[in-house]
Records
---
Amino acid sequence: MSDDNQPVKCHVQDEIAWVSFNRPDKRNAMNPALNRCMMEVLDELEYRDDVGVLVLKGEGTAWSAGMDLKEYFRETEALGLRGIRQSQREAYGWWRRLRWFQKTTIAMVNGWCFGGGFAPLYACDLAICADDAKFGLSEINWGILPGGGATKVVTDLLSMRDAMYYTLTGEMMDGQTAARLRLVNESVPADQLETRVTQLANTLLEKNWVILKAAKDGVRRVNEMTYDNAEDYLVRAQEAANFHDKTQGRKEGIKQFIDDKTFKPGLGTYDKTRNS
Ligand code: ACO
């Protein structure tokens, strides 16, 4: 499905969809063409049976240098409010789609990640970066506030002091700092990045995909709920997942533990290929 000339590249191997920002000459800055293409790619991948995990990476030296200052800002602003709102809809649209994607998602941050890049970073469920990746809210450096979700991302993930510091100074942080501040899960040496991401993806692939989707939505949703509302939401989410899980994984898991004694849930995942 991949075309090297498109602003987004993709190939599927062993149930992992490797999706790349593909404007390396422009440090993978997100222009309207890339935003439209990304939505099409997500659309194509989301319900494929041979895709269990999506990895979002960048071609070349960048993950994404944020919004394309020329094509996303200057050129759409020249079209007036209609142009501005349309390009915002396209960008926000695929980020939202990715936040609630049917399969689990991993950001594999190989290089520069600026401004608007924080939105797809946050949209991915998990994030692993290279030690030499560089993250920055550079908006303040050129006279805007971190919009398009970027302020929300840092206030959700970082402490208030750190969110404020990076918002106001525009200072960059390296991969290890990003991991320490919890902007990403882990930072690893660049030459181990793909191996670590593949290992993590394979861990997710062993799990029941219907329940992964219910669980990841739960993590994002309950954050905004009272305790009582969260309890209630999660009961209903589990019951809905029981309905959608045609393999009845929950019963199978109990059976393999209690009756067959072939696994211990505290120590690993039930064998989802067995279905009695
Ligand atoms: N928008 C438009 N073009 C960009 C962007 C961008 N965000 N980032 C890089 N480019 C272009 C450059 O203009 C240049 O184009 P050219 O070859 O036609 O001159 C090309 O990509 C390569 O960029 P360089 O600056 O030469 O690459 P370098 O590796 O030296 O530096 C860096 C990389 C640090 C990422 C630098 O390009 C940069 O600062 N980019 C802007 C980062 C940024 O602040 N993004 C906006 C965040 S705010 C927001 O997203 C709302």
---
Amino acid sequence: MTYRKQLISITAFLIVLMSGSQITYGAKTKTDLSKESIIPRPVSIIATGDYFTLKATTAIFIQGESEELKQVGLYFSERLKPSTGFGLEVKTTTKEPGSGSIYLAVSGTDPKLGNEGYVLTITKKMVKLTANNPAGLFRGIQTIRQLLPANIEKASKQTGPWKIATGTITDYPVYSYRGTMLDVSRHFFGVNDVKRVIDLIAAYKMNVLHLHLSDDQGWRIEIKSWPNLATHGGSTQVGGGNGGYYTQEQYSDIVKYAKDRYIMIVPEIDMPGHTNAALASYAVLNCSDKATELYTGTNVGFSTLCTTKDSTYKFIDDVVRELAAITPGPFIHIGGDESHSTKREDYIPFINKVQDIVLAHGKQILGWDDIAISTLKPNVVAQNWANVKNANLAVSQGAKILMSPAKKAYLDMQYDKSTKLGLHWAAYIELDSAYIWDPATYIPGVGKENVLGIEAALWTETITKMDDIEYMVFPRLPGYAEIGWTPSALRSWDEYKIRLGKQGDRFKAMDINYYPSTRVPWEVKK
Ligand code: TNX
């Protein structure tokens, strides 16, 4: 071989090597849309074997002049900005834009897409997302994020290229309620932490964040007519730390942040039990007329509002009125769980009266399944956590069930015996166990037609900081999101765990402190 030929072949070898290393680092051109690992798994994917490239010159076109669509376009542009370094312009248009654009349109032609479904059509020339509602476009944008390389999620500028495989995805959820609960009472979490949780659940197309705003250990929402609730009742937390509370302004900021991501906030005021923080703040709420001491332990079932006093219902009316006024979503959650210190003959009329109060303020009632022993009003939703009998009792009264079985969907349950955070009173919940169940068949006697949706709950007796939240929530949360979104016929653990393993790079790019379960074949680049 001549020196020149040798040089050429060495160069060729180097090029191959470099492209090989590109494969390792994820910039390989992926052209088969059906091989992408999207969570929740979409209803249908048709691949066409090419790719679209997102460039600095790509524009996001929205159909018409709708302010709401503009916001969705801006959200997408902002999401792509840190990693791509592109400041994609959002433009309005009345007709389909030309080559090299992303087009978001509300078309309203396909009823099966419902409120949150979307059709995503990717060609070499264009990414087109259509839905009946902006909410559907927002969900579809989450799919596009997952079709881009994992580096798209990084907070600093990355080198592309930003390619998306071509084809068509048609997608819509099985359940209308797909949520997560965060207990901000046992330990308080500030506005920024809550916003991060909202962003993390939004990425997996969840649409509800339930905030457990009051419990024995802390009252976390300012109520102007009963100010001590927050200033005194919110002043501590489990373990005796400083606690905290949201002013109504801060709460409204959370609500808006969630709403911009098509997530509804469900506020919970737990009663008549789990109320020590309130009982410590106002003597009048106690049958003894004596305020209790603040509580920083982790026992349950020792507190109760005085159910026989009129002033108690005045108190509840004030709280529900103020909360309803700052909560645009339909639900107020009244708790009702573990009221072991309330006599049954007091509990039942109490729950009946509280239901009337919530209805009088124009809101729909959500409560833990314990409330099923009372007379449920129309449209009540009972949240199942443990008791099969209560769930059936609720259904027999015409209520819908929100599925949060502690053995499957409690995010504070430890993964296994080695997990340092969390509890295990209901179960150890490894990744497979968290995924392998079906809300439509889990409770004998409760069928799909009775189920409103699914909610995974994070109680925070042992959870003190954002890193802890992430560790317990991830990687179980994408599985709950998929249970709520994807038809059960399309779900299997063996297939899911591979898709989940491929999300590892995304978790890293999003800087999520996740539990690296050995049940999942992680494909994480070093
Ligand atoms: C039960 S589930 C509770 C909560 C605890 C949780 C701990 C339910 C409605 N009540 O008060 O925080 O267990 O896992």
